[in-house]
Automatic annotation (TrEMBL):
EC number: 1.1.1.49
Active-site residues, as the UniProt record annotates them: 242 (proton acceptor)
Catalytic activity from the UniProt record: D-glucose 6-phosphate + NADP(+) = 6-phospho-D-glucono-1,5-lactone + NADPH + H(+)
One Pfam assignment: G6PD_N
Origin superkingdom: Bacteria
Pathway linked to the protein: Carbohydrate degradation; pentose phosphate pathway; D-ribulose 5-phosphate from D-glucose 6-phosphate (oxidative stage): step 1/3
UniProt function note: Catalyzes the oxidation of glucose 6-phosphate to 6-phosphogluconolactone.
Organism annotation: Paenibacillus auburnensis
Keywords: Carbohydrate metabolism, Glucose metabolism, NADP, Oxidoreductase
Name the UniProt record assigns to this protein: Glucose-6-phosphate 1-dehydrogenase
Stretches assigned to the Glucose-6-phosphate dehydrogenase NAD-binding domain: 7-188
Similarity section: Belongs to the glucose-6-phosphate dehydrogenase family.
GO molecular function: glucose-6-phosphate dehydrogenase activity
Enzyme class: oxidoreductase
Length: 509
């Protein structure tokens, strides 16, 4: 990695403290940062470099996945951190920042590169990009890159306008749009599994796959973000970005050793093949939900409308489930079911692939129904499980599930932000959202936003601590399908069974 100045807007914010500094620290421990790598943190308040370094130290002590033990290595890490006052709207602050960056680059020598990381509210994205250009900060002698957090727009039009503004200061190749689900190690494995494993490669199509189920469930409610969340909802907050990215990553078919451009081209093809919904069809393919009071992990919790800061009668969606169809030769007639929600029974993100059962007579799920499943556990646990239907030797005529199971320990696995920051520093855009993907995602979602705005889709309720409204189950039942693994045990991975075939060492992966 070449000498780089990492210019961090929003250096005192929550994301910087919880994710960005711990990620940089772990990259440092793994010798993945150049010795002349340096950070200039920006914020409105006057803060001395030493006080800023102390804040970074607290953040890595609190949030690093690896325990902070060696004081000498922490000191060496913190030496790279400087702080500069900057108010996003003050043009003279950018000029002072430029001087500071140039001083730093002189010290580092080599061909200086600049990475601008926008960890600030989306209302500042355009102003910052404009001022980087106007002030001369954008005239790096080496490369320059812009890393930008979500949300990228509020709907199709605002996303297009934002992109237009950013493109006046940065080219598409210089923009790295973070979708942190793409940084999760299991998501980064998806294409490798199906490309390099002949069994999975052969099965990855509509001949063998019955349906795909993608779930991202949270147990938390709106917490302190009521003002923000009530204008956004599950559709914008999770579905348009993270969930559709998971769908793309699962459905792409890549030639071996694909370049980042090919990955992005194939993802775009998936989005283009997604059958679009008319506003009138939304009610038949999408379930909108909002939580009411309930119990989570034994504790009573209030309903959405009683949360502080939520206006009476809000129709905001805290849950969404949808059925999507990809109209291409590989996936035609394989429903992709996606659901995401707050205040659900368990915290988990997983993809379940249900295989077709060639000899099965009826399409409805029965009492003795054991599906053949491939399960990708994405978070909080990382793992892969193959569930096979097997004869139950103790009960004649019955079947039971046999599991082949891998799980990794969270301490061994790099955090999403480590992977993403590392890739951005190395100029690898494979796991960042290209503008084409973002625009096509908004285009797909826009009729749903319109239908929600006009209230032409019913708002169903679900008790906190459940798996969403009953209508979400009915969405699958219409085609003889069923959400699998909705059990308490699933929160801890698939339960151990007597005849599990578990490989001893997860590092075999
Ligand atoms: P935050 O409110 O905690 O921090 C915002 C930062 O912006 C602070 O450092 C603040 O000082 C700075 N700031 C505000 N106004 C400014 C101004 N006028 N001039 C200069 N600096 C100013 O927000 P956050 O949670 O850290 O989120 C930052 C970005 O990351 C947002 O776009 C958010 O949507 C996104 N994001 C956050 C999370 C998370 O877990 N926190 C997750 C995903 C995405």
């Amino acid at each position: 990695m070449e000498a780089t100045t990492f210019v961090l807007f929003g250096a005192t914010g929550d994301l910087a403290r919880r994710k960005i500094y711990p990620a940089l620290y772990n990259l440092f421990l793994d010798h993945k940062l150049n010795h002349s790598f340096s950070v200039i943190g920006l914020g409105r308040r006057e803060v001395a470099d030493e006080a800023f370094q102390a804040m970074v130290e607290r953040s890595i002590r609190d949030f690093s996945r690896r325990e902070v033990k060696d004081s000498a290595s922490v000191r060496s890490f913190l030496k790279s951190f400087r702080y500069n006052v900057l108010d996003v709207g003050h043009t003279e602050d950018y000029k002072k920042l430029l001087q500071r960056v140039e001083q730093q680059e002189k010290r580092a020598g080599g061909s200086p590169n600049r990475m601008f990381y926008l960890s600030v509210g989306p209302e500042f994205f355009e102003t910052i990009a404009f001022n980087i250009k106007q002030s001369g900060l954008g005239n790096a002698k080496g490369w320059k890159r812009l890393v930008i957090e979500k949300p990228f727009g509020h709907d199709l039009l605002s996303a297009q306008e934002l992109n237009q503004k950013l493109s006046e200061a940065f080219t598409e190749e210089e923009i790295y749009r973070i979708d942190h689900y793409l940084g999760k190690p299991m998501v980064q494995e998806l294409d490798v599994f199906q490309q390099s494993n002949p069994v999975l490669h052969a099965l990855w199509n509509n001949r063998y796959i019955s349906n795909v189920q993608i779930t991202a469930a949270e147990t938390v409610g709106v917490e302190e973000r009521a003002g923000y969340y009530d204008h956004v909802g599950a559709l914008r907050d999770m579905f348009q970005n993270h969930m559709l990215q998971l769908l793309m990553m699962l459905a792409i078919r890549l030639p071996k050793d694909s370049s980042p451009d090919e990955v992005r081209f194939k993802k775009k093809e998936v989005m283009e093949a997604l059958e679009s919904l008319d506003e009138g069809d939304v009610q038949f393919n999408v379930v909108r939900g909002q939580y009411t009071a309930g119990t989570i992990q034994g504790k009573p919790v209030q309903g959405y409308l009683s949360e502080p800061g939520i206006p009476a009668g809000s129709t905001n969606d805290t849950f969404i489930a949808a059925r999507l169809q990809i109209d291409d030769p590989f996936w035609k007639d394989v429903p992709f079911y996606i659901r995401t929600g707050k205040r659900m029974k368990e915290k988990s993100t997983r993809i379940v692939i249900e295989f077709k059962e060639p000899l099965k007579q009826s399409s409805s799920a029965g009492e003795n129904d054991i599906p053949n499943l491939l399960v990708f556990e994405i978070s909080p646990n990382e793992g892969l499980t193959l569930q096979l239907k097997a004869r139950d030797p103790q009960h004649k005529g019955k079947f039971k599930a046999m599991h082949i199971d891998f799980h990794t320990s969270s301490i061994e696995v790099p955090e999403a932000y480590e992977n993403l920051i590392h890739d951005a520093l190395h100029g690898d855009p494979s796991f960042f959202a290209h503008w084409n993907e973002v625009e096509l995602s908004w285009k797909w979602v826009q009729p749903i936003l319109n239908a929600f705005d006009k209230n032409t889709v019913p708002l169903h309720t679900y008790a906190a601590g459940s798996f969403g409204p009953a209508e979400s189950d009915q969405l699958l039942a219409k085609k003889g399908h069923h959400w699998w693994l909705d059990t308490a045990e699933a929160a801890n991975g698939v339960e151990e069974e007597e005849n599990d075939v578990s490989l001893p060492d997860a590092s075999n992966f």
